[in-house]
């Protein structure tokens, strides 16, 4: 009873006209909102886990030197990669660089990384298909496999995705030789995506390949794969809950992912001209185990990778490259180069 004043009912009734002891009940239920409660709600929405469907493009990626894609950009990218009767299509498999068809016109992007890092699974997720063979056992992809996407009836594919044999466990030396030939000499190659397992981080072999990229000026970007492994609360136990349960990610896990990316940045973008051109200042992350709700059903982070591929191949924003045909041989593009339809004269 300490601190409380007791007032008899009669006095209370007479006092009500002079001092408002308590808000009228009808008034209280309609408009009275305790300010403290409101603040708590705000705090909760800031700290509450993020639902898969509420994730923003910057949640699973770092855009240090580039502009994050808008929702319209991501929708556009999803449309280009939409599965159809003509997309994806398998174009070729080659164990040797010299056996790859040299006269193709489509821009290419390649996926490389250690065995089992998830290269084939990412291509399947990008193409909404099972076109690539995936396996728990490392070393199962033994050739360079090319898949075309965005094709139409009677029209060739817009972009070619290359699934490469992995390095590291169960890999073979000659695969590395052929892959390096492809990366150094393929004129159609626009960007190489190096996959890093988000849980294991950069291994020595990854660092070696990064230094080769810089040495030979090969345009490259990092993708952190298997994000589920660092976004779940309890590894293994939490994975089912993550993919099929609440389908949400704790804010602390998202913050930790940003930290992982920041720590990798000085290694993938070493400072100094002598180091050579580093990775693109944009790091993407994805997991092929967790999907958005229908109708999208995209794996987490996949749309951002699609948008990045469109940018790498010059297909973002409706840019249409024109293939310059050599007059002497109409079958072959001159120098295999793609030239934009751009003119310097001012006649409009
Ligand atoms: N936890 C987890 N496992 C994955 C993910 N993507 C692929 N895997 C598994 O990793 C293994 C290797 O995948 P694969 O795509 O064949 O790797 P590749 O050797 O780099 O082509 C397979 O057992 C996949 O099911 C992912 O996002 N999260
Ligand atoms: Mg594979």
Mean pLDDT: 82
Rg computed from alpha carbons, rounded to a whole number of angstroms: 28 Å
CATH topology: Rossmann fold
- Order of strands, main sheet, comes to 2-10-8-7-4-6-5-3
Straight-line distance between termini: 88 Å
How large a portion of the residues is in β-strands, by DSSP E?
Answer: 15-25%
Q: What structural category do the secondary elements indicate? A: alpha/beta
The profile of the biggest β sheet is: 8 strands, mixed
Give the CATH level 1 class: Alpha Beta
Count of helix runs: 11
SSE order in H/E notation? HHHEEHEEHEEHEHEHHEHEEEHEE
Could you name the CATH homologous superfamily? P-loop containing nucleotide triphosphate hydrolases
Domains (count): 1
Number of strands: 14
Shape designation = elongated
Residue runs with pLDDT of under 50 for 5 or more positions: 326-348
Oligomer: single chain
CATH architecture tag: 3-Layer(aba) Sandwich
| Chemical compounds bound to the protein | guanosine-5'-diphosphate, magnesium ion
Helix-residue proportion: 25-40%
Biased composition (Polar residues): 325-342
Organism: Talaromyces rugulosus
GO cellular component, one term: mitochondrion
Domain EngB-type G: 105-270
């Amino acid at each position: 009873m300490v601190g409380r004043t007791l007032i008899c009912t009669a006095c209370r009734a007479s006092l009500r006209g002079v001092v408002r002891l308590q808000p009228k009940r009808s008034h209280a239920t309609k408009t009275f909102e305790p300010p403290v409660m409101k603040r708590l709600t705000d705090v909760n929405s800031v700290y509450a886990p993020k639902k898969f469907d509420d994730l923003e493009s910057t949640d699973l990626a770092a855009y240090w030197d580039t502009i994050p894609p808008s929702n319209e950009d991501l929708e556009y990218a999803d449309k280009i990669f939409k599965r159809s009767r003509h997309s994806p299509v398998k174009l070729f498999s080659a164990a040797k660089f010299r056996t790859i068809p040299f006269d193709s016109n489509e821009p290419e992007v390649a996926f490389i990384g250690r065995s089992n890092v998830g290269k084939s699974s990412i291509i399947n997720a990008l193409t909404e298909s099972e076109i690539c063979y995936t396996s728990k056992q490392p070393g199962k992809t033994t050739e360079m496999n090319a898949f075309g996407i965005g094709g139409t009836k009677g029209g060739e594919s817009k972009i070619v995705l290359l699934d490469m044999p992995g390095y590291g466990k169960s890999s073979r030396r000659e695969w590395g030789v052929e892959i390096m030939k492809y990366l150094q000499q393929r004129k159609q190659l626009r960007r190489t995506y190096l996959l890093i397992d988000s849980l294991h981080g950069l291994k020595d072999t990854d660092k070696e390949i990064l230094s080769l990229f810089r040495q030979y000026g090969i345009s490259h970007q990092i993708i952190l794969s298997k994000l589920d492994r660092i976004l779940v609360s309890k590894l293994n136990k939490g994975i089912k809950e993550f993919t099929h349960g609440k389908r949400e990610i704790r804010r602390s896990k998202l913050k930790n992912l940003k930290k992982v990316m920041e720590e990798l940045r000085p290694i993938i973008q070493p400072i100094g001209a002598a180091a050579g051109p580093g990775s693109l200042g944009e790091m993407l992350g994805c997991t092929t185990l967790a999907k958005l709700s229908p109708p999208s059903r995209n794996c987490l982070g996949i749309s951002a990778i699609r948008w990045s591929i469109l940018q790498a191949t010059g297909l973002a924003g409706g840019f249409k490259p024109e293939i310059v045909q050599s007059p002497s041989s109409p079958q072959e593009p001159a120098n295999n180069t793609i030239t934009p339809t751009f003119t310097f004269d001012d006649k409009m």
